[in-house]
Structures are given as structure tokens and as C-alpha cells.
Amino acid sequence: MAQAAPAAPGAAQPDLDPLEAGGPKSETVRSSADRTVVTPLAGAGNRAVGAQGKLSTAAPTLALEATATTAHLMELSVLARSEDAELDVTVDWGDGTKTDAQGSASHGYERWDFEHAYALGSYTIKVTVKDTTHGVQAVNEVEFVTAGTEFTPHAPTRLLDTRAGVGAKKAKVAGRSSVALKVAGAAQVPAGVRAVVLNVTVTNTTGPGHISVQSDKGLAETLQTSNVNYLAGQSVPNLVIANVGKDGFVHLFNGGWESVDLLADVTGYFTASEAGGYTALNPTRVLDTRERLGGRVPDYGTIDVAIAGTGRVPKGATAVALNLTVTNPWQSGHLTAYPAGQLAPSTSSVNFAPEQTVANSVIVPVGADGKITVRNGSWMSTDVVIDVVGYYGADSQAAYVPASAPYRALDTRKDKWWSDRKSGPVPARSYLPVYLPHDEDRDPIVGWVLNATVTNTTEVGFLSVAADHNQWSDYKDGTATAPERPVSSALNWTAGATVPNLVQTTIGQGMHVDLWNQGWKSVDMIVDVQGRYQVG
């Protein structure tokens, strides 16, 4: 028999500002009317030429506006200004297809609206309007890039190390300042890259703070979001999927008041081209050394984990998205995840201290044998837990659409005027549904990329994130039933810590994602949306 859902503050409404955030933004490009090129039609004669021997002043001008509405879809608006004339329009989409339409500028203008579906890529859209009344044709073009991108795995490679002068000058990053990191063109990351997967580590810290990674320096220094949080004496890594600026850079901002060293390791990138799509999975455990024969991973030892061709990840998957957790370590160290059959890189995926449980998201290329390797970089053995949350490959259909800038979907420390939910932490052993609305027919989203943060902690605990089967109306009218409690860990915290982590999650049929407080004390939660995976 179904049970009522456990009490959770704000279950009926999203903590999403409908005016300021408004969900994922659409990208729009324009070509103004002054870029119109007008030429006489063949055989037009004197109709196209005025008294001064110039083209008729009645010739139309064209203004174009192209908007990416989903990963593959776009809307094109064509505004033609002309004296009273019959007009024929041809849109050459740049992919080998064309669309024709007719109109009449009886009021001095005519407007056409088109929709077109593209394969991922960059295209030149050419619009030609023929004005047979005045014997001229007008042409304008606009460059368009699909919003959707696909993933190419990259062997873990260090792009930034301020301790050694790699990627930036050899110096700590001062408090309240940023460092620019060139991504496009570095380590064979191509020009035109739209987003990059980085494992960002802050180290040599002498005070508390946070790191924000953005495509623009101003965004990095002003957004109220963080990718890595740290305390004095800590070395903290976190996975970041960061938008890359048009200049090929990302900017890492040190939000603390003391200087720090920063490291960034690339493990993949997204481009507007057919590469590897994404398939989102409910978290599936593929390794728990506490329960396996052979036990813990030995000091400076490795363990191979079968991924592709086992369970829900098919053969041919090129990379896998994981939650990698270290638990019960007896000494400080780090874990490194990398493709099986390759040499271990000089990078870390998770850093830990003695007796600490730490989770981090990682995206790891899969070895030729379908396996990944995890190396224990500690002088003593440790337990390792791995949960698969998705995979990339040529047969996967979802494309990644990055948000133009991260936007806040939840902050339990604040109440909002439009929501029934008031501020307050998530109770112990309870969950909070987060409503992420979208048009399911037009905007088929299969997964979200979130940055989840837990703060105001008073005891150890961990966060789980999972899809919710309830509809929005179920929470509104009190008929929601309890989801099954997950066991996977998205992030772990200790008393007094503020901990963020990247979360890649599926979404329930009611457009809810559940955040589970698996600790025994209440905590505050913050969720920033980084992007989404779409199949349309």
C-alpha cells in the first residue's frame, strides 16, 4: 500500500524565481537590416533602376533573428521592409534543405516565422526575398550554432597548476581575484569548444573561501554560486562542467580573502558536433569494496572496474559519469580514476583525510576493454564506492545544452513571495522535491546538470539525489506517495562544512528531482542549474 511522502518543506513549489531566472535561456543571434545586399532581378530592366541610375529605393531590406529553442530546434524570424510589393522568400538553411514562402508588404513590411530542426553543428542561413514588383532581390545571412552539444572524452590532462606555472604564472591566486585559463587549443582541445569538463582542485589554503568557474570574468566574480568550497588547510577537488567563452577561456575566481593554489585537469569537452550523446541513469552501484571479496584497495594499488557491457552501460560507451566515494581511509591521500590499460595520470579525482568519507562526481573515459581503473594514492588502504549515473556514446541520443549562466533553483535559507514554501532546513532523514519545469512535448529533457551545495551542517551526513515519480499536482493536493529511499551518495559533509558537488541526475515524469538528507541532523541545501540533456 502506498504511503504518504515524508514531510519536506516546500514540496509543492519550486524555489525558482519566475521573473529573474525563468529557467533555461534561449540563445539568439541577429543580422540587422543594414547588412542586406540588394541586386536587380534578371530581366527586370528599368523597374530595378531609378532616375539616377541606382537601384530602386523601394527595394526591400531584411532583418533576421534566429533563436535556439532546444538542442536541435531553432526559430527564424524574417522581417522584410518594403513599399507595397509581392514578395517571394527562400530560406536556405545551410544543411542542404530550403523552404519557400510568399507574402505581401501591403503595409510597408512583411514577416515570416519558420522553425527548423538541425543536426548538431554550425550553419550559415541565407534568406533571399524576390520583389517582382520592383524587379530586385534582397539577401541577408546569419550564422547559427545549435544549442545542443555532444561529449568527447579526453585523457585526464593537467591544464592549470599555479604551483608550477602550468597554464598561468607560477604564483598563488590572490584573495578576491581570478585567473584566466586558456582551454580551446590547449592539450588538443579544439577551437569552438562550448563547454569543458574540469576537475578543479584548490590547495595550500590558509583561510575559508570558494572557487567559481565561469566563461566570463565578470560572471565568475559576481555570481552567487560556487563550484568548490574550502577551509584553511584543506585540499578540495570538485568536478565542473564550465562554459567556455568565445575567446576560448574560462575564469577561476577565488572568493576567499586569502591566496590559494589552483589546479584544473581536463577529462573531456562538449562541441556543437556529432560526437557522443548522453544517456542518464538512476544511480547504479558497480563497486563497493566493503562488500567484495578481496576487500579494500591497497596502498598505492589499483582496482579495475568493468563498466561497458555490464549492467546498464552498453558496449561502445566512450565515457561514464560516476559518483566516486572514498570511505574508511586510514591515512590522507587521493583517488585517481582513468581509462583501464593506460598509465595513471598525475591528477586526482578525490582527496581525503584519515577517517573521512568524501564523494566527488567524475567523468571518466572508458578503456578499450570496457573498464576503468581507480588508483589509491595513499600509503594505507581504503574502501571505494562507485555509482554510475550515466554514460556517453555514439548510440546515446541526448545532447547537452548548457545554461547561458548558472541559475538558482533552490535555496532553503530563503523564502519567496510566489511560493508556499518558507525558508527552513531539510529535516534529518527526509527529502525535498525540487520542481524543474519545462515543456515536456517541445523540450524533452532527460537529465539535468546541477551544482548541489549543503551548508549549515552540525553533524556528518550525505546527500542523495534521485528522480521523483510524483506529479506537481500530487504535492499540491497532498496525495504524493513516498519515493524509494536511494542509497547512493552525491556528496558527504562533516559538522560545520559547506560542501558543493556536481550532480548529473535523471528527472521524474512530474519534473521533480528529490534531494535526500541522509544525515541525522537538518541541513540547508542550495541547487544551481548548470545545464540540461535534451533529445529534441
Biggest sheet descriptor: 5 strands, antiparallel
Shape: elongated
Number of helices, where a helix is a run of at least 4 consecutive DSSP H or I residues: 2
Unreliable parts: 1-24
Strand order in the sheet with the most strands: 2-9-8-5-6
User: How many distinct beta strands?
Assistant: 33
| N-to-C span | 37 Å
SSE topology:
Layout: E1 27-31, E2 37-40, E3 61-68, E4 73-81, E5 86-92, E6 98-104, E7 109-117, E8 122-131, E9 136-145, E10 150-161, E11 177-182, E12 195-203, E13 209-214, H1 217-222, E14 228-230, E15 236-243, E16 249-254, E17 261-271, E18 277-288, E19 302-306, E20 319-327, E21 333-339, E22 350-352, E23 358-365, E24 371-376, E25 383-393, E26 399-411, E27 430-435, E28 445-455, E29 461-467, H2 472-477, E30 491-493, E31 499-506, E32 512-517, E33 524-534
Antiparallel strand pairs: 1-3, 2-9, 3-4, 4-7, 5-6, 5-8, 8-9, 10-17, 11-16, 12-15, 12-17, 13-14, 13-16, 18-25, 19-24, 20-23, 20-25, 21-22, 21-24, 26-33, 27-32, 28-31, 28-33, 29-30, 29-32
